[in-house]
Structures are given as structure tokens and as C-alpha cells.
Amino acid sequence: MLFPSNNPEVGQVMKTRSGVNKRSLTCSIPFRPPPLTTALRRGWPSSYHQDTMHSDTRQDMLGFGTTSYQYYPVNQWTSVQVQEWLRTICYENNIDLGNVASFAECTGPQLCAMSQSHFVETHPVYGDLFFRKFREYLDHCQRQDRHYRHHLHHQHDHHHHQHQNSPPTAPTSPYILQNPTTPTTYHELLARPQPALYQTSRVPWQDASYHQNTYPGDSSSSYTTEGTLPPTSGDFPGAGHNTMGVYQSGYSLPFEYTGNSTPSPPSASLPMAPQGYLPVGHMPTAPSPSSPSPSSLSPLPGQQDTRRDRGPKLWEFLLDLLEDPACNPAIIRWENQEERTFRLTSPHEVSLRWGQRRPNQNSLPYDYFARALRYHYKTGMLISVPERKLVYKFGSLVFQQRRRGANSLMYPESPHPDNTSGHPS
DNA sequence: GATTTGTTTCCTGATT
DNA sequence: GAATCAGGAAACAAAT
């Protein structure tokens, strides 16, 4: 039975409560939710995935296709991922696919090192557009990376505080490279030199110091890029430091890296959720919580960053839990993946974790948590599943936005088609 | 400083 | 009777 909003008596009861400061007796806690990881948030269904031009697509665990480039750090993009990304841009901008041919042999590291003029040289017509779009994608990845670091730091502190008798463990992020001993741990990636051919004297958003203080590099890496461009180090700005390192954190590597120049695409046999990542306790070192310098985050001239930086939304948090083998199915599990329904197998644990986002407060009653979930009925992010307790359903917009995260700077938010009420007043 | 956004808190009533 | 659900209302904090 739904709330009898058509019941005038009930309505009056509600109105009589207007104006009452119900929270006057509660303690106001400074609230600045530290961002939980938004890792892997780029790998969700796209509006174009069924287009026949995408031959290298796969089905994710929800049955929505996606391309593989979103699963890789940009500097591990082979020409395959570059082509995927370019096709995406073409599709989204109504550009003929033939225009991607000029970038046919480019890899991610090469794109990273290319200046705007290089893009234009490579493709006089759309080079500038490709450059801007690539730059926007990197910008997005950078923010994701920043969120991830903040999250790790917060989780590390919390974990340490909560389990002082336990042996020191890693921050509670599931997005940790499974095999830190491979040459492609993100520590090493950060030190990976860039190919020399496309060295550019100006990459305005670069800030080598961002990672220099955080991840000591390992210049002994045996990494090679696909293609013909040998890595160099000394003559690259940043002297052996990958200035694109800010986009290379391991979280976006959803599977174990084999060391091959061409990373294997995510296998369908692997679980979708944090593929290749281990849950809490397997991270070799904790990233520094230090934030990048403002200069490293400043947008390009003419580019305005309108994104909020408030940490994950509730529905993102739920997706993160579902992607985390440590949580799924322990405290949350898919009820029917194809239908996007999930069950809170331990609702109080889930709400507690949600509450732990907030400093100085480590719990949230399930009642409040459930109310927050119901709030998202109006936003279209969640859909009620009647007569099934503790079961909720993701709205389709969740996956659109999950995927759109990578392109959020390119596309303004559009209202949910099913959401006729808009944001609640 | 006003507005927007995304909760959080509190509540009543209904359902399981 | 307890747990859960539904949803109105308002407070709150951070971002814009």
C-alpha cells in the first residue's frame, strides 16, 4: 500500500508538521562526504553499443554492451582501444567513421603525448575536436583518480581506527590491482616513460609533481608500447616520469595485466565486478591522500568544469558494492541481473557502510537509508519492486549515467524520460 | 547570499 | 508485534 497521498486527512496531518524544526534537538555534524571510489564507473552501457560499427564490444554483467577502452588506463590503450574511443567520438558527433583511419596505429600513450597541433596534423578536419574530446576524457579520468585517492585515504584512516588490534591492512577499496608484482602495477605505470616521437612541450594539465610525491616510480619497467615507438625517458618533460600518470591509476585496470603489449580484453568468464581486483587488504601501499595541485586540475581555456565533487551518489555506492566481491553477495547481491534488481541481504550493514562515508558518524539507521533509496524513485535511479522486501531495482538511467561518466563533460545531463516529477521540491 | 543538489532526519500510516 | 515500505516535510551541507 502506497502512502495515501489522496487521503485528505493524511495530507493535513503532514501539513500540520510543517514549520516544526524537527532537527533542532539533533546534533549538527559537519558533513563533508569523502568521495568513495568512482572506479570502474566508466564501463557501463552506452547508447551506441548495439551499433554494428563496434565490433569489439562485449556484454557486461548486466547484459548491456560496452567497449573495452573504458576498462583500461589510457596509457594502456592499444590501437584497438584508441579506435574504439575514436569511433565513440565519431558516433556522438555524427562524424564519418572513415575519419578515424588516420589514427589507426596510434596507441594511448601516443595520444597522451600528442599536442593539439599533432592531432590537427594527423587529421586536419577533426583533429582539434579529437584533441578536445580526448582532453575531456582525461580530465574525467583525473577526477576519478582523485576521488579514488581520497577514498583510499578515508577508508584507510577509518579502517585503522576501527581495527587497531588488527594487523595493518590496506584501505578498503576493491579496486586494487590483483597482481602488484607485475611490471604494470600502477606505481610502475606512473613512472613509465612516454614515447618520444610525440613529445610535446606543452601539456597544460600535466603536473608531474602530482605523482612524484605519491608514487615513486620504477624506471626499470619493461613496458613497451604497441607499435614502433620505443619508450624514452630523459628527454621527455618530467624526466622519466610519465606526465600522464594522473590518468593511470590501477583502478581502471579491471583485470590482471599480463605484461603483453596488447592487453587482453576483459574476459567474459571473469566476474564483471571489480575484475582482477582484490578486496581490502591486498594493496601494497596506500596512496597519499594529498590532492593534486590546483594547477594540475585547471581546465583548458574555454573549458568549464561544472561537475560536482561530492563523492558518490547513493546509487553509485550500491553499484560499487555490487561490483565488490567482498560485498556481493555478503551484504548485497543481484536478485536478477538482467532485470537490474538487487537485494540487500544485509540491509543494516549496507546502511552502516553508507553512513560511514561521513566523518564522526559511522552508522546510519536502515530506516533513513531506505528513505534515501526511496527518494531515488523520483529521480528515476531506482525503481520500486513491490511486495519484495529489501529488493530494489536500478532505473535505466543509472547505467546511462554510469557510462556517461566518461563523457560527462561532453554531454549535459538530460532529464530522465520516466521522471515526470523532476527533482523533489 | 541565493539557489541547486543530494541526501538525512523524522514522521504517520500501510503492509508483510 | 516487529520489520519493512511508502512518501511528505523540512533540515542540512556542499557546490554553483
Any overview of this molecule?
This is ETS domain-containing protein. The chain contains twelve helices and six strands. A hairpin with a 6-residue loop joins strand 5 (382-384) and strand 6 (391-394). The strands form two sheets. A four-stranded antiparallel β-sheet has the order 3-4-6-5. A two-stranded antiparallel sheet has the order 1-2. With 425 residues, it is mainly α. The longest helix has 36 residues, at 127-162. It has one domain. The relative contact order is 0.14. The chain binds a DNA duplex (16 and 16 nucleotides) through residues 1-5, 7, 10-11, 13-15, 17-24, 26, 28-33, 306, 308-310, 313-314, 347, 364-372, 374-379, 384, 386-387, 389-390, 423-425.
